[in-house]
Amino acid sequence: MIDYQRIKEAVTMEAALADYSITPGRGGWAICPMHSDRHPSLKVYKDGYYCFACGSGGDVITFVARMEHATNAQAAAILMARHGLSAQPSYEESRAAIQRREALEAHKALDRWASGARDILCAARRAEGGRYSQWDYYLDWLEDAPAEMRTHGGEEVIKRAKAAAGWDAGADNK
């Protein structure tokens, strides 16, 4: 399995262009190799390119695929060979990927908790007639800093809100 993202992070667009002796000039403009270009029409960005004359554009893998008349998988293999990337990520790259995945999962879990907490706090507010109450304070806190609220007593607040809303602590009353 090819890790396209790892290749795109490891090989810059300018490095891929240099493989074909293309050097962007001032402002990141270059002669487009995809068509008969006489004036620079290829704009090079940090993570890709776009030709304003022929409409060709993409990332480093797409660029190499078009230059070599190859598939994206073949282009990825070419880039890996040219730039010394192994098929397997290093321990540090694997660890970083695991950390990114764990952070994303933690963020999603916090979003789920905050969504449920918001529902409970709104139910508690409605149970008190919808007038301004302590639940508004907690709703504002939840909106501004959900992670802080959760780690600094948020679970206890939610238990109290469930009781105020008349929700059975053992059942999900949604």
Describe the structure.
With 174 residues, this protein is of the alpha+beta class. The protein has 7 helices and 4 strands. Strands 1-2-3-4 form a 4-stranded antiparallel sheet, covered by helices on one side. A hairpin with a 2-residue loop joins strand 2 (42-45) and strand 3 (48-51). Helix 6 (134-144) runs antiparallel to helix 7. It is elongated and about 75 Å long. The two termini are 43 Å apart.
Quick recap of the structure?
It is built from 7 helices and 4 strands; from the N terminus they run ααββββααααα. It is an alpha+beta fold and 174 residues long. It has a 4-stranded antiparallel sheet with strand order 1-2-3-4, with helices on one face.
Q: Which helices and strands occur, and which strands form pairs?
A:
Layout: H1 4-10, H2 13-18, E1 29-30, E2 42-45, E3 48-51, E4 57-58, H3 60-68, H4 72-82, H5 91-127, H6 134-144, H7 146-165
Antiparallel strand pairs: 1-2, 2-3, 3-4
